Amino acid sequence: MGEDMPTTYESRTTTTTSGPSGLSIRREYITSVPGLFKIAEMVVCFITFICSVVYPRYKGDGWVEFVSMSALLTVGINFIFYLIGLRQQLPPFMLLVEFIVYCVFTVFFAIAAIVAAVSGSYHASIGATAFFAFAATAIFGVDTFFQFRAWQDGQTHMTTGATTTTTTTSETTAQY
Fold first, then answer.
1. Contact 122, 56 (CB under 8 A)
2. Locations of Low complexity compositional bias (predicted)?
3. Is residue 91 situated within a structural domain?
4. Is 144's pLDDT higher than 90?
5. Of 107, 136, 144, 175, which is least packed with CB atoms within 10 Å of its CB?
6. For residue 8, what are the β-bridge partners?
């Protein structure tokens, strides 16, 4: 007799991301993988720029200086946004925008590295510029890959908080 009674199943999933909310300095971001990539990118961009300006007036020096300085400023601002938690306050599509910007910088650094390598015989600093521009290309490429994976997995931002998923299932049987 009890087998004929209708049964209703209800399932509810709750996802909670822990971490500080609002604007505050997130020191854990500095030691996270995305944070270390940003720091490495800023250092390599700065070294590339310094090596590029040591020997002025070779073919393509303006392009190398432009790419390295614009990447340094962009990554620096992005790093500060993540460090103070402002990035998490921005709309979710910004991770896609960040991914596209990093794709552009990867291609720009590859072009800048080739331009510097072609002129590398003029001075040792131009050869160093080419080396660090290729290093920047590699670092930006790997970081772009990780950003693509984060975007593909549906993350709204690159974060270091812990995520907890709880699924609750309940069964309800109608009483007559």
1. no
2. 7-17
3. yes
4. yes
5. 175
6. 172
